[in-house]
Amino acid sequence: RSGLPEADLAHIWRLADADNDGQLSPDDFVRALHLVSLRRQGMDLPKELPEELLHLAPAPSAAGSPWAVTDGQLSAYMRVFQAHAAGTPGAVTALAAKDLFERSQLPQGDLSRIWQLADIDGDGQLTAGEFACAMHLVSCRRDGFDVPASLPEELAVAAA
């Protein structure tokens, strides 16, 4: 749904599949989403996977962090993303996200701040990684955590 040529997608797959097993693990998937986002913004794809994308695991100090997204959470967020990205390939529009996020019954100010944090590129729509980031922020806020002042590192990697 990204609208990218098959050659670009094949190259992204080869780069993102860090262990070359022909499958994308959750970390591989985040790598792929990041590369798709860069390419959709007109940037050239790298010939080799950049070092900063190779090591996505959160630092040990973040192991108990509420901002760390589990594999199960990421899978659930991606299912919701696929259901809501139907009209805009590779992204969820602001209107679709607004309707979805308002179901959380969080205050409008919290939802606005979550949108600002998650919409990394400021294009008014959420890519899969940005959407997962927003969903996790909503979930954490509903669990009683304050919306952070800046995007936690654990989520910045996922949203990229």
From TrEMBL:
Protein name: Calmodulin
InterPro entries the record matches: EF-hand-dom_pair, EF_Hand_1_Ca_BS, EF_hand_dom, EH_dom
Gene3D superfamilies xrefs: EF-hand
A GO molecular function held by the record: calcium ion binding
SUPFAM superfamilies: EF-hand
One GO BP: endocytosis
Annotated ranges, domain EF-hand: 4-39, 106-141
PROSITE patterns (alphabetical): EF_HAND_1 (PS00018), EF_HAND_2 (PS50222), EH (PS50031)
Domain EH: 1-60, 73-160
Annotated keywords: Calcium
A GO cellular component annotation in the UniProt record: cytoplasm
Listed PANTHER family: EH DOMAIN (PTHR11216)
